[in-house]
Write a structure and sequence with these properties.
single chain; about 450 residues; alpha/beta; Rossmann fold; globular
Length: about 450
Amino acid sequence: MINANPSVEAHYEALESQWNSVDGSLEFERLVVPTGNSDKPFHRWFHLKEAFSVDLLPTILKQLSFEGMSELRVLDCFAGGGTTLVSALEMSSEVRVTATGIEQNPFLHHVSSSKVRALQAGPHLAQQLRNAYEEVQRLYTSDAPFMASPPALSTFSNEAYFPPSLLTSLLRIKAAIEHCDAPALACDLLLTAAASCVESSSRLRRDGRALRYASERQPREPWVEFSIRVQQMIEDTDSSQSAAGMASVTLGDGRRPLLYIDESKKKDLVVFSPPYPNNIDYTEIYKTEAWYLGFYEDSEQFRSQRLRTLRSHPSVRFSDEYDYESSGDAEAVRELLKPILDAVPDDRYATGRRQLIKGYADDMLTLFRHCRKIISSEGRLVYVVGNSAHGSGNALFVIAADLMMARLAELSNWHVEEISVARSLRRRITNSRFLRESVVTLSPG
Ligand SMILES: C[S@@+](CC[C@H](N)C(=O)[O-])C[C@H]1O[C@@H](n2cnc3c(N)ncnc32)[C@H](O)[C@@H]1O
């Protein structure tokens, strides 16, 4: 077991001692992961491994004693698969809900926005989906000589990853949906269903960090998979009432919600789980689905997409400029980051790691400043984040995003109410108690 860098650990001890840090494992351990999402209507349409649980929002509302409110205006700046928004809409029979999401990944935006549109559409959507599915089936099985061309991503031409007959089938499903004359929402849902078959029709597996080749994997037949998923959508929309609340997801930059939301439109609750500073690159992990749906046409568009994401990964070289450097908080941010930057080992990853630490802090400072302007006076901001170990051997150190973000929130005029430690991520490699996932609550300071 390796000891994590002791100066960094002491820095975290000192930071944490200023706030109320509690063991939140009882309430939150199972809610910071997607517990229950794959069984719940609407949530189950696409399995996002990095999602939090469908039960997280109700639990937070209970903890904050927000349950009896007549109105709930909620914002998720990193909407992902739309868990917050769908959960909020599901409460709209008891409370007037306005739920807003922002998501930068075009595929995940497609998934979350089509889910919330479906929830608001009501049961007539089920019939539209049935009709659309029948038409797609007719086109798919016909002799019509149409075919979507394979995406220009080399992964698709690797026959070990995508057996050719299955790829042909996947592409024909997409082409049939594009030729089908159905209402736009029904088509978007069928495209979500088709994209959610891409991984299972291949020998690729998302392992949490990357897409990996799994030679032992038996790819499934796309049309069968697609039909199962559309059937689930029909069942879910058939048995749901049209949600009374309002929800939408914007394709854009969640670090800057003021670009999309007027400052006068206050929120009661901002809740999000940003990408963690652990090198995971969502553009990479969900690339096959995004290329399949045609969101990128060439490698330049793919690279531009990466550059638009939060600086939580070193997959692209972001510009080495940081807004905090020219702000009144420059000294305080430098003081916060210095022990962590000093711990970065001088190896070939040094530049990328330093840029990640500074870039992540810079993005979070911007985010907290924006959110502070749109929170109502009695509102709260709750974030879920995981800390991560970097480096190896004697040079191992932890990036405690929960504490780093708490300090940056303070600098943005937030009060840190509670750091609730949801679960320990301690691995065999290190015994740092800061390797953990937390749920942090802020109130306007
Ligand atoms: C941890 S996931 C959120 C999952 C979400 N809570 C759920 O339950 O589905 C983080 C999300 O942030 C998105 N993201 C990354 N950079 C972003 C940015 N600049 N603006 C908005 N979203 C971004 C990623 O694409 C990813 O979907």
